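User: Some background: our group keeps a shared notebook of sequences we're curious about, and every so often someone picks one and asks for a predicted structure to add to the entry. Today it's my turn. The entry only has the sequence so far, pasted here. Could you supply the structure so I can complete it?
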Amino acid sequence: MPNGDFSHHFSTKNRNPLATSIAKLLLFGLLLCPGQARAADPDTITFTNGEQLIGKLVKVLAGTVTFHSDTLGDVTVPMAKVKALHAAQFAVIEKNQHLTRKTAIATVPVGSIAIENSALHVSAPASAPKAQQKSIPVSDVNYLIDAASFNRELHGEPNFFYGWTGTVTLGASLVESTNSSQTYTGSVTAVRSIPTAPWLPPASKTSLNLSGTYGLAKDPEIISGATVIQYPSITKTDILHGDAEYDKYLSPKIFGLVNASADHNFGNGLQLQQSYGAGFGWSVLNSSKNSLDLRTDLQYEQQQFYNGLTSGLGTPTVNLVGLTMNENWKHNFAHNMKFNEYITLTPTFNVLQAYSAVANANFVFPVYKRLNFTLSSTDNYLGDPPEGYLRNSFQFTAGVTYVVK
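Assistant: Of course. Here's the predicted structure to add to the notebook entry:
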């Protein structure tokens, strides 16, 4: 049908004014926003050997590129092996760039990126500041973050369940013979650091730790002739610990804190030790390889000894006021091996001999993806156990750790 007849045909056959208006609006929308009528173009990456992948750029972190392909999944390669990269809507963070939430909005370029000839080009929208239209040597790029994550970090995240990471460790030992024993160990750690982005100064951190060891060993009576070789006995191990802490950063290095903890240790005759404190901390080191935090807080503590046994102080319950001093050092080795240790000392003011201490050290070895092998040791020291109980209890654990992200 000729074009001139088409307009006449449309106007005479469609008598409904509402339908005619809707059709015109849809046609106008398609002409005005053609980019939204089709799916977004996929990202592409080309390696120095000429191979190319189509998919989605996940991130660039400290010279390492993570790219998702529907065929291969997540592929992580050094930036040196990337010849070209094209992706949409990413924020570019340069090396040695000190940012805050306010300065990041004005200085960090966000837009389509293209890496070619060892340079990264940012094509920001026309409405963006000129400072965000730039080219950067690839060697100066520290992070590439998708625009949605970038904006979320800048404007905050009200959801309490956002930003948590942690680990779950399990271990067990079973023996079945004339003598039998079973020991189970487990621990859960969870940390929420806000913002989650390492290129922004810290605002707050919430940490939760739970651990437990339970064991039971049974020795039957063994008689040979008229001689008793072994008397029957049952040995029990029961150690539980839990703590929570909230840190509010006053500066990138100094933070205020509140915490609470609870302990149960059958080996020390301790039915329950609960403590509540508030104080300050100092982040001495905070890098991708090393972190060192020092903390001190004033705390109230109560000790209740097992089954009403009196402690070395002559009472089954002791109320204490003390000072907690803690240091925590973490180090990341090559091949993603990690070491973590902490020491906590708690001298008490009103009853000097009721002091306590805890020391822990653990190595984590990667095995497969999120699975790791962990070696851990913990020593708990109690200054005033009941008569007949030792002052310290030592634990060594080998187990499998799963990383939760």
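Suggested note for the entry: The longest strand covers residues 233-249. The CA atoms of residues 369 and 403 lie 9 Å apart.
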